[in-house]
Amino acid sequence: MDKIISEVNRWENTNIQVFWGEIAPCDHLVQIYENDKIFLDTLEGFAGTGLLLGDSVVVIATASHINSLNTRLLAQGFDLTALAAADRYMTMEATDTLSRFMVNNWPDEDLFNRCISSVLDRAGKDGRKVRAFGEMVAVLWAQGLNGATVQLENLWHKLHRNRFTLYCAYPRSGFTQAAEESIACLCNLHSKVIDGQARPATEIYYRSVK
Fold first, then answer.
1. pTM of this structure
2. Domain assignment of residue 189, given as a range
3. How many domains does the chain contain in total?
């Protein structure tokens, strides 16, 4: 798996502020990360830069990751209460959100669209750009629901359609040592892959998929 990630794929790198400042609504990003610090550094850059630029940020994640992100954003000086009141910073717990549209361990497309679209519409009011992070796919993958994970990625992609920037992430620990095919399948559902290994704090390493 490490060979697939670090040798076959050729990584590009750029300044972290430039990367997060220039991502576009057409971008659907994924990261398979080594540990929570690497992931939270990435999520903080994704969300914090968006808020600085006037974008709205939607975060669907585990409670612990939401709490950690909130702590980091507060330390940057963001007024999260005011941002939430203006629908510019919206958080949703991943497992609770999944319960709203999963039917027999499979994501129902109509329920998913109604659940997520209403949130994105609020975030995008007044013509604001929207950035969304989704950890629900990682929750399903951890439960062994691999087919449902791919289907949920597809539903996100269909809903995405260049309307908002979308970022997904999976912990490397959720993959076996012989999971190259699964990793390649997931990466190919996205437009860019962000490296999930330890890198200089000022840089982002990534590769374009399509």
1. 0.90
2. 2-208
3. 1
